[in-house]
Design brief:
Helices cover 72% and strands 0% of the residues. The chain is an all-alpha fold and 199 residues long.
Length: 199
């Protein structure tokens, strides 16, 4: 009976961890978390030195719990293959594990607003909070088209740099030509010297 229950639990976990709808919900929550982090950063910029409102803290605790549970589900589903070199999602698994670990550390460590916290601990807390925004990158693993677009943009960076260099050279050449033409024009008619003030 116990084996049957364990088998049913494992199959439920496997169904959840590999379900497209579950991935879509997690992706939506990642975007929601990013929006919440942006709103928090905006609030902190406008209210420097004030205590963070409880609703921001509640949202952050909720997201930490959800993403921790999601990671645990995937670890239980994949077991020893989760950190296996043969796993094609190994890099994403390590990335997810680091993000969840940083979020848990942020929840465990004391608040940066606490007076008793020293400066080095406050710096570590700020860095950990900054890392949370990188969770948005996780969405790329779920959307093949987005991954393809990002890969295409990264691959075209060298061409883009050469294109910008060519554009700058063309702008420079035309600027020098126009400057020479205006200078010659002013030489012929010194009363138009005010035109050189624009160059």
């Amino acid at each position: 009976i116990i084996d049957d229950r364990l088998g049913a639990i494992r199959s439920t976990i496997r169904f959840l961890a590999r379900n497209r709808r579950f991935e879509a919900i997690i992706s939506f929550l990642i975007f929601l978390n990013a929006a919440q982090l942006g709103a928090l950063a905006d609030w902190q910029a406008k209210h420097i030195g004030q205590q963070i409102p409880i609703y921001f803290q509640t949202f952050q605790k909720f997201f930490t719990v959800v993403f921790t549970l999601e990671l645990l589900l995937r670890i239980i589903d994949e077991r020893s293959d989760f950190f296996s070199r043969s796993n094609k999602s190994l890099k994403w698994n390590v990335f997810d594990s680091m993000l969840v670990t940083f979020a848990l550390i942020d929840e465990i460590l004391p608040s940066a607003d606490d007076v008793s916290v020293d400066v080095s601990t406050m710096r570590v807390l700020r860095m950990i909070r900054l890392v949370r925004i990188f969770r948005v990158l996780r969405v790329m693993r779920f959307f093949r088209e987005l991954r393809t677009m990002v890969t295409g943009i990264i691959s075209s960076m060298r061409s883009l740099i050469w294109c910008l260099l060519l554009l700058l050279m063309l702008i420079f050449l035309f600027a020098v030509c126009i400057m020479q033409m205006v200078t010659e024009y002013v030489k012929d008619d010194p009363s138009k010297s005010y035109m050189l003030e624009d160059f």
